[in-house]
């Protein structure tokens, strides 16, 4: 596993869907999970979920509130500052994005990256390929030269990413997103706050210590990530692949996991309707993948031998779930 490349690919996916905090795809891209942050302006605050008409083919599977992950039910109510997780058919989740999060849904095409280490270089190459206009600021001349040899159009600037005069001279305020990727957590936070002060719409910060994630989100950083946690998802997938797990992703520093599991004829859920299944722990079945078809299940949907099911679960429930399902 190459942590920097895994992280660069995850970041590209997040940057290509600017209204979301996080994005994960399953089932060869037919199923999507997206995380959004609710503001005071969100039109559905204070309403019980059972009264909200969501688009066909999508479920609200998780709510993160004050650092605690909640698996919602019909009586759950949405509040400002909640992070919400929608899982479903890709086009249905995109419909949710267009319905309620379109006010942030500009297309980001101008990125500034502070730090041209291995992650910065990988991300610059991916963003350039995806059609972004990229400026990279890096103190170390050797790193600048390495990156300049890898890219065609990206502008590589040898300088200090915290130098306000340099940022103004390079017209960094015109960027859509600032991405701080140095090895210094405090420096990354400072860079992002300077970017916010300059009016850059989205801030993305790398942290070495996952315990800083919540603190940075509280001061208004839009996307905070730890390469260690992205890599942990890949390692978890590898470790659990013997337990029938096809893919696994962690969210919010490991506060929730989404898992794609293969169901065999030996599984106790094979041949049962969803309403008759009591999953151990806190989890929701979000999508059933059956051949080329993706189904968002209802209570009377039957799970069949050969189905792949995508679940959203709290981490303490995952081991029990996998033992039960496989």
Structural write-up:
The chain is of the alpha/beta class. The protein has 3 domains: 3-13 and 106-229, 3-Layer(aba) Sandwich (Rossmann fold); 16-102, Regulator of K+ conductance, C-terminal domain (Alpha-Beta Plaits), CATH 3.30.70.1450; 240-325, Alpha-Beta Plaits. It is 29% helix and 27% strand. The chain has 9 helices and 16 strands. It has helices spanning 3-15, 90-100, 118-129, 141-148, 164-169, 185-197, 213-218, 227-240, 315-325, and strands at residues 22-26, 31-37, 58-65, 68-70, 83-89, 110-114, 133-138, 155-158, 177-180, 202-206, 223-225, 245-251, 256-262, 283-290, 293-295, 308-313. The strands form 3 sheets. It has a 6-stranded parallel β-sheet, sandwiched between helices. The mean pLDDT is 89.
What labels describe this entry?
Alpha-Beta Plaits; single chain; alpha/beta; 5-stranded antiparallel β-sheet; 3 domains; 326 residues; Rossmann fold; 6-stranded parallel β-sheet
Structural class: alpha/beta
Q: Judging from the principal axes of the Cα atoms, what is the shape?
A: globular
- Uncertain residue ranges: none
Q: Give helix and strand order, one letter per element, not per position.
A: HEEEEEHEHEHEHEHEHEHEEEEEH
Q: Summed up, what is this model?
A:
The chain is an alpha/beta fold. The chain has helices at 3-15, 90-100, 118-129, 141-148, 164-169, 185-197, 213-218, 227-240, 315-325; strands at 22-26, 31-37, 58-65, 68-70, 83-89, 110-114, 133-138, 155-158, 177-180, 202-206, 223-225, 245-251, 256-262, 283-290, 293-295, 308-313.
